[in-house]
Structure formats: C-alpha cells, structure tokens
Design brief:
Blueprint: E1 2-5, H1 11-20, H2 32-50, E2 57-64, E3 67-75, E4 85-93, H3 104-117, E5 122-128, H4 132-142, H5 144-147, E6 150-158, H6 167-172, E7 182-189
Parallel strand pairs: 4-5
Antiparallel strand pairs: 1-2, 2-3, 3-4, 5-7, 6-7
Helix pairs in contact: 1-2
Length: 194
C-alpha cells in the first residue's frame, strides 16, 4: 500500500470514493437531491481547500496499486481560541476494505506526526452522536498508542438540524444541516495547560 498527499491529479479517484459511500443518508436528508448536493459540495471543497499545496490543509490517500481506497483530511488553521489544534475533516474509504486494510490507521499516525511536529496540542473531530461508541471502539483497538496520550471531552453539542455558531465546525459539517445530533470530541495532549 502506498500513502501520499493528494493533489489535483486525484480528483477522479476522490469522486469515486464519495460516490461509493452509500451511508450519507444517515446524517443528511434521505432525498436524492440532498445526497447529490452533498457529494458535489464535498468534491468542490476538496478541490478548493485540500488539493492545493499549503501548510494548513492536508488530504492524504491510501492506494492499492493505482486505486485510491481511502482518504483522510485535516486542517491546522483554526482561529483563536482553537489555534493550538487541528480538526479532522474527512475519513472516507471504499466499501470492501476493513479498518485493518484500508490505510486509515497508517494515515491517522501520519496526521498526528505532522500536527504534533507543528507544536499543536489539541485536536477535534466532529462525530454523529449515534456513532460515538463505534468510533471509540475503533480508537481503542487501532489508535490506542496515539489516543492514550490525550485527554478527551465533548466540547460542543449540535442538535439535529441546527447550524453551529463556530464556523470551522459548520465547515467540517459541509455547511449543511444534518439529521442527527453532532458532537465535537476534543483531545488535549496530556501534561499541557490550555
């Protein structure tokens, strides 16, 4: 498996990943137009913010040969008072691969190496409330070495069909109202005073 930062050459493969995901209706209205709009806006956002070379927005991919099988993005340009951290933007993988074979674990480690080398001490992830136990089970099993070096709390709760007041959270949600409660899980590096 090969891992690399993605660029504009990878638009076709990114489109294939977002179109392969069938479960987006879990959090957005189950209407064909809404799902199509989500996919279109997701690709537009990746092109505008992540497929460009800069030191704040990262999009990595895992390849099986020439096929992009998963991708992961994060941004490190959060405004004050969150500017000591980063937010995980997207985790997407093609169906048919498990967490052990899709490259997400390896990209997770790459993300922490990059962000911690920048001196960032806090990270955030927007998680649908109904997925929190599934996420935690994956974190406990596969991300334990990284996960255990942070202390966690729910820093924000966004009720269903509500726009959050914090712009980077709204941006991470795709700037669309979501059907389910969304929570922001924040990890703070142990032994760090915020």
């Amino acid at each position: 498996m090969e891992f690399r930062r993605l660029d504009t050459r990878d638009i076709k493969e990114l489109t294939a990943i977002v179109n392969a995901k069938s479960n987006v209706a879990d959090v957005i209205p189950d209407q064909l137009g809404e799902v199509g709009q989500y996919r279109t806006r997701w690709i537009e956002g990746m092109i505008r913010y992540y497929l460009v070379t800069n030191d704040t927005h990262y999009l990595y991919g895992a390849f099986n040969g020439n096929e992009l099988i998963s991708c992961m993005s994060w941004r490190c340009d959060l405004p004050d008072p969150w500017n000591d951290g980063w937010v995980v933007g997207n985790l997407k993988a093609k169906p048919g691969y498990s967490i052990r074979t899709n490259g997400i674990v390896e990209m997770w480690k790459i993300m922490f190496e990059i962000c911690e080398s920048k001196g960032l001490k806090r990270w955030h992830m927007v998680i649908p409330y109904k997925n929190q136990n599934k996420y935690q089970a994956v974190a406990d099993r596969y991300f334990r070495d990284v996960d255990q070096s942070y202390l966690y709390h729910w820093s924000m709760i966004i009720p269903p069909n509500t726009q959050p007041e914090v712009d980077w959270v709204w941006g991470t949600m795709g700037r669309i109202l979501l059907n389910s409660e969304i929570r922001v899980r924040t990890g703070i590096k142990k032994c760090v005073k915020i």
